[in-house]
Write a structure and sequence with these properties.
Strand order of the largest sheet: 8-7-19-20-21-18-22
CATH architecture of the largest domain: 3-Layer(bba) Sandwich
CATH superfamily of the largest domain: FAD/NAD(P)-binding domain
CATH topology of the largest domain: FAD/NAD(P)-binding domain
Structural class: alpha+beta
Oligomer: single chain
Shape: globular
Number of helices: 22
Distance between the termini: 48 Å
Radius of gyration: 27 Å
Helix content: 25-40%
Number of domains: 3
């Protein structure tokens, strides 16, 4: 008799879970080996990357927040390239290929608070060789350090030219530094000859760069002590030259920004060599916050607290409990991420999706996996995982069946202008009619941990919501846990009591709530007073702005995907997001908690628009936002027009953003380290070699889960080393 395929129960439909399923089903004849069932709370896949279409408002795209992919996301782009190839949409159809779905973004902006005034720092990033998602040659940290020092050399050359214009003098080291450097270089044999001008910082910078290039080409011949010595003396020279000019806030923008670039790159280079990151890895410095690490290696306050560093903290919501007064992230994790973002991308620094993330990522994945034979069970909320009698494996999975679906054949997608999309609410016509009517009457959110739906259902029917118990050996053999780390304490207490590693991961790897709002405006960027257009017409992605919403992006590429009437179509879409400060989360019976958090987000959005946004949009009033800019089909007046816009508080366990607080990455687990023989983990909270909350890490976690089960994929780019 043929062997029974192993039954795999996949819990959750986020990036990690769907990646695991994609790779499991990429194996030839996979159905002879596995039967895969995905159990998803609510009506859509996506986790914190889910998006939906609002049928009542022009099928507009409503997101959890701002989602933009970085050009170093090799594993994530590989997933998309393979998914779109398998999808094989007809030529000319919407988003027929992955290159239709993701467009390069070269233009980014930072905002600086200088002398109580906000200034915009526009940055045009260069095009780099290659295509994200394709295999790349192995590369050590030596090569990245050499590239960093080459940028450092170019910044120093630009600063030297500016210094000459400001002072009429050439940039030089002070005599004591020059004399001491000659003595030390003679002892270190750094390759500088007696004929070279070691008092010229450009000569020293080029020599450091050349030595680093030699180390990249021949690591065994690396002369790191000499490179460290050169960098330390460059740092002294930079600080000495800048000292007479006083407060950097009084400098010209160009001069201050070049200074910060040099100061940060020198501190990074010095820190990597002094702490031996090159040979020991980034984890060696994870016991200290990144800003403190920079300062410990000589970076000045203007740089440590400046826009580039602040922008990266904003990017990864690196604030304990979401509090902007408590910035914190592991130095090694942040450094690795910054170097990958800035030096490890291919083609473009960023890529913007050309529809909602649900439309671009999760609809194609769902369609491909459904065609392959994966079975999806929507409206199944995980209640608890339980061990078997021996305590070494998962014995039972308890699920709550939220809504009855006749025949369990829910078809989740709808067509919007020819593109398969997820709706913002369940497709009620496919549900049990009585339950659908009750859900709509009470505006029940089936994705909320704090929903009162079980009570409403029992009051209406006299019986509790049905539970489904899946048992090992009859309903499943293996489990993929695709929920966030914040869900473990809610659904896996029996497991945490047995597995110390899983318990420590749950206790130490934190996740923070986030908040977001979206505006549809009847003014274009010029009409709202954005005065910094990209060199090639690109719209801005900006970070480092005011709290509580420090990140803004213009997302006008989405307008063509929505169905606004011709005369009422918006001209501009603005997305804002940030962490949400919450110290604690109440029990599930506090049903008003989501509404209170949503009201907090709305009030903060109004405050920003009324008092802060004019710093970016010069035609907005400083204390009187022009509310008639907002597209409002309901015809509201004043601030009431905001009611027709979209905002949300991402507070549910699987919506929260995974942090890398100081010293916590050592508690992260690999996919096969749950402590239970048949339980495999997937998500961005795993030990992936990136160890930070992002799409790429979630994909890597899903790839790990698949590999642990079936051996595929054998290689995960970036998992080990650089």
């Amino acid at each position: 008799m043929a062997a029974q395929p192993r039954r795999i129960a996949v819990l959750g439909g986020g990036v990690g879970a769907m990646t695991a399923v994609f790779w499991l089903t990429s194996v030839a004849d996979w159905q002879q080996h596995y039967q895969i069932d995905v159990y998803q709370m609510g009506w859509r896949l996506g986790g914190k990357g889910a998006s939906g279409r609002n049928a009542g408002l022009a099928q507009r795209i409503e997101e959890h927040g701002l989602h933009i992919w970085f050009g170093f996301y090799d594993n994530a782009f590989q997933l998309m390239q393979q998914a779109y190839a398998a999808l094989n949409r007809p030529a000319g159809s919407p988003l027929a290929s992955w290159t239709d779905a993701f467009k390069p973004q070269h233009y980014v902006c930072l905002s600086e608070l200088i002398e109580a005034s906000w200034r915009v720092w526009p940055i045009e990033t260069p095009v780099l060789p290659g295509t994200p998602g394709t295999p790349r040659a192995p590369e050590g940290l030596e090569a990245i350090l050499a590239e960093l020092l080459d940028w450092q050399r170019s910044w120093l050359e630009s600063w030297a030219e500016s210094y000459l214009l400001h002072t009429g003098q050439r940039l030089r080291m002070g005599a004591p530094h020059e004399s001491r450097l000659r003595e030390l270089l003679a002892a270190a044999h750094a390759g500088l000859t007696a004929f070279e001008d070691v008092g010229d910082p450009l000569v020293v910078a080029r020599k450091a760069r050349d030595l680093a290039r030699t180390a990249a080409q021949t690591p065994a011949a690396a002369d790191w002590p000499s490179i460290l010595l050169l960098l330390q003396h460059l740092q002294h020279a930079l600080h000495d030259v800048a000292l007479p000019f006083g407060d950097p806030d009084t400098w010209s923008d160009d001069w201050r920004r070049l200074y910060m670039a040099m100061d940060l790159s020198l501190a990074v280079g010095i820190g990597m060599l002094a702490d031996d990151v090159v040979s020991k890895g980034f984890e060696i410095i994870n016991g200290i916050d990144f800003r403190s690490w920079l300062a410990s290696h000589g970076a000045q306050p203007v740089s440590v607290n400046g826009a580039p560093v602040r922008g990266f903290y904003d990017l990864v919501f690196a604030y304990r409990n979401g509090d902007p007064r408590l910035p914190e992230i592991e130095a090694g994790t942040m450094l690795r991420g910054m170097l990958k973002v800035g030096l490890g991308y291919r083609d473009a620094l960023m890529y913007k999706m050309q529809a909602g993330m649900g439309d671009v990522v999760f609809a194609p994945l769902y369609e491909v996996l459904a065609r392959r034979g994966v079975r999806f069970h929507y409206f199944h909320k995980l209640r608890e995982l339980r061990p078997d009698a021996a305590g070494g494996a998962i014995g039972e999975i308890e699920l709550e069946q939220q809504v009855a679906v006749p025949g369990d054949a829910y078809q989740p997608l709808l067509d919007v202008n020819g593109l398969p999309c997820w709706p913002s609410a369940p497709l009620y016509a496919q549900l049990d009619p009585q339950q659908a009517a009750l859900l709509q009457a009470h505006q029940v959110n089936l994705e909320s941990h704090w929903t009162d739906w079980p009570q409403l259902y029992q009051q209406a029917t006299g019986v509790p919501l049905p539970r489904k118990i899946l048992r090992a050996g009859s309903d499943f053999d293996q489990v993929v846990f695709g929920l966030s780390v914040a869900s473990l304490a809610r659904v896996a207490q029996p497991l945490l009591a047995i597995s110390a590693p899983l318990r420590e991961c749950s206790e130490h790897v934190a996740a923070v709530a986030t908040q977001a709002y979206q505006l549809w405006l009847n003014r274009d960027l010029d009409g709202i007073g954005w005065n910094y257009p990209g060199a090639h017409g690109e719209e801005p992605v900006l970070s480092g702005f005011t709290e509580p919403f420090d990140t803004w992006a213009s997302m006008n590429q989405l307008l063509c995907r929505e169905t606004w009437p011709a005369g009422d179509a918006p001209k501009n879409i603005a997305y804002f997001c940030n962490a949400l400060a919450l110290d604690a989360y109440p029990s599930a019976d506090d049903h008003d908690f989501p509404a209170r958090c949503a009201a907090q987000v709305k009030a903060a959005a109004i405050e920003q628009l009324q008092t802060q946004i004019h710093a970016l949009w010069s035609k907005a009033g400083s204390h009187d936002f022009p509310w008639d800019w907002l597209v409002d089909p309901a015809g509201g007046t004043g601030a009431a027009r905001l009611d027709s816009q979209y905002w949300r508080a991402n507070i549910d366990p699987s919506e929260r953003y995974v942090l890398s607080l100081v010293g916590t990455s050592r508690y992260r687990l690999r996919a096969d380290q749950s402590g239970f023989s048949n339980l495999f983990l997937a998500g961005d909270w795993l030990k992936t070699g990136l160890d930070a909350g992002c799409v790429e890490a979630a994909v890597m976690g899903g790839m790990q889960a698949s590999r642990a089960i079936c051996g595929v994929p054998a290689v995960i780019q970036g998992e080990r080393g650089w």
